[in-house]
Specification:
72% of the residues lie in helices and 0% in strands. By secondary structure, the chain is mainly α. The protein is elongated, with a radius of gyration of 23 Å.
Length: 163
């Protein structure tokens, strides 16, 4: 959103968007150089950067609807945007989540989806099996075969939960 704001024709809003982009670049610069810092100095630098970003996002916000909408989003959800700073293991982007569902989006685009509740439920289940097996390094075809054999022989079904 800051990139969008920086490209608007309203100078005050564009300047606001550019200040946010610059602050974001500073923050990601610290994040990408984390291995060069001690844990304590990294935490301090990230907290300082977060505060600077929120100051820019919430103080002297232009009157444009777009700038006000973004500022309100940071007022309401600001902590969630920076959870990657305070929670180990949380990445600053959602790239992994997007990669996990990419094949679903492509499949829906190619097939134009389904036209029934039963079809949607089947797609949800098979996509879950495919994504889970891929994330666990398991063969989805083998899992489906084992599940079918277990069902047909009244045996317990294999689990998708990590072993």
């Amino acid at each position: 959103m800051p990139k969008y704001l920086a490209g608007l024709s309203d100078k005050a809003t564009a300047d606001y968007g550019q200040r946010l982009l610059d602050a974001m670049r500073d923050m990601f610069g610290i994040f990408h150089n984390a291995e060069e810092l001690t844990a304590s100095s990294f935490a301090k630098a990230m907290e300082k950067s977060r505060k600077a970003f929120l100051d820019i996002a919430l103080i002297d916000v232009p009157d444009s609807r777009q700038a006000q909408n973004l500022a309100n989003r940071f007022r309401k959800h600001g902590d969630a945007y920076f959870r990657f700073i305070t929670t180990p293991g949380v990445e600053p982007t959602n790239n992994l989540a997007e990669q996990a569902i990419r094949f679903v989006v492509i499949d829906r685009y190619i097939t134009q989806g389904t036209r029934s509740e039963k079809g949607r439920a089947w797609c949800e289940r098979i996509w879950t099996v495919l994504a889970t097996c891929a994330s666990q390094g398991r063969n989805a075809f083998d899992f489906i075969c084992q599940s079918t054999q277990a069902h047909l022989s009244d045996q317990p079904l294999p689990s998708l939960l990590s072993p």
